Amino acid sequence: MKLSDSVKQRTYEKERAFFSPYAQLSEKSKGRRRTEEPCNMRTDFQRDRDRIIYSKAFLRLKNKTQVFFSPEGDHFRTRMTHTIDVSQIARSIARSLALNEDLTEAIALGHDLGHTPFGHAGERVLNSLSPLGFAHNEQSLRVVDVLEKDGKGLNLTYEVRDGIVNHKKSGHPATLEGKAVSLADRIAYVNHDIEDAIRAGLLKENELPKRDIQILGGSSRDRINTMITSIYRNSVGKNEVMMGKAEAEALEDLRSFMFERVYITELSLKEEERAKRMLSAMFDYFQSDKDKLPPFYLRLSEIYPLEQAICDYLSSMTDKFAVAVFNSIFIPKSWALREEDIEM
In the beta sheet, which residues pair with residue 78? Predict the structure, then answer.
């Protein structure tokens, strides 16, 4: 046996010895859609994590909105920092329950790869524009299956792909690791969006629902710790990843509070209207003349419905790039004038 092979075998042995009987063992993966030569040192889930980290879609997350469009400040979260938050929380859950951290991390890092510019506002706009509909979790799966590597996709394992497409609350992940990511996503965005909303002056600490704060804690750190602890107490030794009833209800109450006070407000809807006008104009522009699409997306339009290729292009954009493309299409460019050309 090669030295490199023994590294992977030691990982397999540790998993068999220390993982929960309900964890997903790396050596028991259902495999990839296309057969390929396995890595000598890394397990398939470790390899998937690396492929996601080095993908173009992952790099773009740093310039995509989480909640606030183009915030004035360095400490507001982006889709990238949200993804890292989810990964950290999900790994803490997986570690406490003796689940597969590598699989958990890969799902967490890939769960939002298909998110639109301008956050959920962009997602709602594309869903209303395309007759095919649009959902960021399904687009995330399309990114790793089709769009990355110039149309070849990343060829990820079944378990990672399943966790990505099923990470929304309405999803049903096939693995406990996928369930850990789904819960971690909700824990992360509610708590960290509260921090950003307070930083932006949209909320004050004393305005948060008192009953929920009494249950979960007065700070983001305390609330996250309370929920992870609740998940551990209600899931350890079981074929389930779930939060206690009181904590789950408090989290859902906080989520509803954030929709009422931050996500769906007069201010946010005003910004959403601007995003809608921009994305709608570009959607119509490319729909009326698909030859204006970049070559890669034009090739996709020959294989998939045109509306799908347009959604692929628009959803891939960062906020700043979407504005730049809009400007290049619709904003007149000034001509350089000589002094003698200007009438006095």
Answer: 65
How far apart, in whole angstroms, are the C-alpha atoms of residue 176 and residue 221?
24
How many structural domains does the chain have? 1
Ordered DSSP codes for 209-256: -HHHHHHH-SSHHHHHHHHHHHHHHHHTTSS-----HHHHHHHHHHHH
- Inside any domain, residue 21: no
pLDDT of residue 343: 47
* Structure confidence by residue, pLDDT tens digits, 202-233: 889 899 999 999 999 999 999 999 999 999 99
Asked whether residue 37 is assigned to any structural domain, the reply reads: no
Structure pTM?
0.92
- In a domain? residue 10: no
Residue 342's pLDDT is what?
43
Report if residue 342 sits inside a domain: no
Using 50, 70 and 90 to split pLDDT, how confident is the model at 314?
very high
| Beta-carbon count within 10 A of 201 CB | 7
Q: What is the CATH number of the domain that holds 284?
A: 1.10.3210.10
DSSP 8-state symbol, 65: B
